[in-house]
Amino acid sequence: MNFRRRRSAHFIAILMFAVLPQAYSAPVSLVDEAPVRISPVDQNTILVDFGKVAFGNLQITPPPGGSGKKIIVHFGEASAGGRINRTPPGSVRYAATEVELKGNKPLIVAPAADARNTKQPEAVLTPTEFGVLIPFRWIEIEGWTGEMKPQDITRRSGFSSSWDEDASSFVSSDESLNRIWELCKYSIKATTFAGVYVDGERERIAYEGDAYLNQLSHYYTEGDIEMARDTFDRLMKYPTWPTEWATHMIFMAHADWMWTGDVEWLAARYPGLKGKLHLRHARADGLIVTPKDEIKNDLVDWPAGERDGHVFKPVNTVMNAFHLRGLTCMAELARALEREGDAAYYEQNLMTARASFHRVLFDPARGLYRDGEGTDHASLHANLFPIAFGVVPPDCREKIVRWLGGRGMACSVYAAQYLLEGLFENDAAAQAIELITAPNDRSWKHMLDSGTTITWEAWDQKYKPNQDWNHAWGAAPANLFPRYILGAYPLAPGWTRVSIAPNPGNLKNAGGKIPTPRGPLHVRWENGGTFKLTLSLPPGSSARVRLPAGEKSDGVLSDGKPVMAYREGPWWVVAQDVSGKVSLETRNP
Fold first, then answer.
1. Is 469 within 8 Å of 135 (Cβ atoms)?
2. What angle separates helix 381-388 from helix 317-336, to the nearest 10 degrees?
3. Cα 402 from Cα 48, distance rounded (Å)
4. Which pairing describes strands 571-574 and 542-548: parallel, antiparallel, or unpaired?
5. 59-107, pLDDT tens digit by residue?
6. Residues 6+ apart with CB under 8 A from 110
7. pLDDT beyond 50 at 23
8. What is the Cα–Cα distance from 387 to 78, expressed in whole angstroms?
């Protein structure tokens, strides 16, 4: 990727951002999409199915003899009984508009704009020349004359102009995982319509927590960096209210640096990141204390019913876990910018707070973290975030991970990103995959079985009655599968050094393509009598490789010849980094 060229374009975008009252951000194009099915409903009504939901509007060519007639066009995101659901639940969209056909020239058809997602100052607007964009899959047309042909109707769908469908891939021995990957990848594509990451259709507002999860998945599905950067800059102008959302801004900047290695972009934004820490609320032992009048801003999870009974205290375990991770990231960013004094300051605060975190908040009798100082309740969240952020001492991790895996998905689709990270990071891939594909209403399998084509804001309507059906924070598998099942993520900024550590769980094989800034990375593995890995790294990247050791293996082979490797828990670690194209296999005696 030509970062010099991309940075120039970004600076132009920043200038635009400064003068516009609303953000018309990263390049978005309207793509013409043909219907997959047109069928008559009755003598007066035609049903058109575009196969998947997308944010768009219509171009219609009037039929011969239709000029001067009026038609009613219904837009629907949900169906019921073979028709558009005109009273859908929550924030699921339905709209209708009347159109007069004039002549035989194509005309653009869209419903009126929704005031809720266009009039708020923080709402992200789409370009005026696009017309109103609405998420829909189905169209019903009343009053059409004669047969409607595919060339008569086109959906103009808004997608990122840079989107490359072939940039990434994932396939495994589990067909459910394959379908989940495709659902989540498409969810990322479909929600690029606004040019920055928004929380969905209901508000179309950028939120920090949503944006970070979206950023990770966008990286791994298409590799674009500009939309995340534009979203970051927008959020610096329009920050939102949750306490830990501020820390997500540090996460976003750190993710950009690790993905790109670009310190120039980071340097311009580093001063603003300092205010995203909560050091002003830190007491002498390093733990942050949420002021009484601000406890309402401690989110933990959303909606409130997904908090697993978390008991809110001024010293909140979840907030302090975020604080520790934020300090870790800030120290690394400061060192990358050669701000050694800042790095030392953050590291000292981290050391003090980390020791206090375990001493004050850990219950040694149960081997779990309490929700906060002054309560004995131990929610899923008080334990999943410390595990995901790597702040749990090594000798305490196994019990917490086992407990988390046994609790099920007792959190929202947002917190599931971190729960699954924690399980994958701690050799519990089988449990993570089981949660993803669980045959209940708290899994991605449930979303698939419900017929959605974009991930939901919540696991089910009953958990969030006002949810929308186009929420990218529900697309976590788009980044989790390549990071953990394929096992590829950067160890050094810019993917100069990579970790390859597949987590097979109970899968027999998996493979895919990852779009790194240095070029595509290909991984393929088979998990049978031995573990076989085929790897193709882009130029300028080297990799530390870890292979699942299995019960009987006693070494590692490269092209049939032994290579130096050592055991590290359940892994074989290849002693020397590899580059280029490599084939490795564990060896059985």
1. yes
2. 20
3. 49
4. antiparallel
5. 999 998 878 899 999 999 999 999 999 999 999 999 999 999 988 899 9
6. 57, 58, 97, 131, 132, 133, 134
7. no
8. 38
